[in-house]
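Q: Sequence in, structure out?
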Amino acid sequence: MGIRVTVWNEFVHEQNNDFVRSIYPRGIHEQIGGYLREQPGLEVATATLEQPDHGLTEEVLANTDVLIWWGHAAHRKVRDDIVDRVQGRILDGMGLVVLHSGHFSKIFKRMMGTSCGLCWREAAERERLWVVNPNHPITRGCGRYIEIPNAEMYGEHFDIPEPDELLFVSWFEGGEVFRSGAVWHRGRGKIFYFRPGHETYPIFHHEGVLQVIGNGVRWCAFDGNTETIGIGVCSNIAEPIEELSPKDYVEGEIEHPSESLAR
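A: Exactly. Output:
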């Protein structure tokens, strides 16, 4: 079985804006999904906001190893119970790749625990996406940098927690810089944020950008120890590995085990 990927897209701009539709006639989700389907070892499905449960039913998520998230105009329309469901799966080991304006999605803000705010400007600026961690699997094959002819500027300060690893830093024609690629671990799950991808530019047709997304999917797929306990949504009582010696419990000095277990 390959890595099971679900590409989620709110799919709003492509239906409401003729110019965006001309760039992504099948939707951003299908543009990304189409590329990933051509890569070996990946099984790709898509989901959108308007589907029942936003296309993220318990069954879909149970069969997803890595979830890719793109959103912009409809962050508030994503139901909180679906966010809870996605969060639970991430803590349990599902990977999450968040693209561009998904920085302000409910799920990304939930997993970061910060506002995830930033400054921005849309002026079709040249972007140079510098690789600052060439030894990471996600930056494999990128060279020193990725050049994007026209992009929406995202600038610092980006209100995110300190990344476990910083992978890319962008420079923009107007002078700003931005932490454009970073990874975190949450529970058993891995999270990769990647900045490129505004809907009015053909950035998801860019081979370098798509390659990074593919690398990110492979890195985010769970490859850890499934026997670890107490990492996911709830903790578990662990049986002792060694035989415990009998102990005398004196009231007021040592708490009886039954009292701690009852809490």
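The CA atoms of residues 9 and 29 lie 5 Å apart.
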